[in-house]
Write a structure and sequence with these properties.
The protein contains five helices and ten strands. With about 220 residues, the chain is α+β, with helices and mostly antiparallel strands. The N and C termini lie far apart (about 70 Å).
Length: about 220
Amino acid sequence: MRINYISFLSLLLSLILISCIRTNKISTTGYQNDLKQFPTDMVDFFPDPESINGMYSTSKNVDTTSECIFYMFFDFEAKDILKFKKYAQDKSIGSYLASDSLLITIKRRTIIDWDISKKAYYENLFRSDTQYYPVPFFETMSKLDYIGIDKDDIFSNKNTSGLSNSFVFYILDSKSGQFWDGLKPNEFMPESWKNGYSKGICINEKENITIYWLIIW
């Protein structure tokens, strides 16, 4: 009986382990499918689905009538944040504080139409002698409270970026040109940047939160 009991426990533990692994794979299936919708070289820096084991959320827009396309991955339990920060610093072509009022932000047309204060025209990418690559405007995700995430740790209506003061933007790449069919020239951008894309990472060292993002306009 003892041998059978031990065998039963071993089998049960094995089934639980297999179930956990399978559940993790199923939970990232949507994420994997999302990434396939975008050019590989634009999302190759996003987390490997196999490495995801904490709380996360994604945000996506592929509606061309919004005048921009974006994908974002929010990691609410980022590991080795200092090591990751060093990686971002080494790879970036520019970095800015989320609280910087001079940021050039790309917004969905709906956001601009709803709030006229969000409308801004940019004559060029140099502001106060600094090169500002375009970044996405981060819209508040109100449902985060349901999973125990304080949205005030992430978002701020007071900042041009939409993110809280604790975040830093690291731009990994940004180019002008037509990169998504159906997007018309953005009237708010400089003449040579009416269409383009930017990709990068935002790091909140205080809260151990990272955001991977891609924006195409």
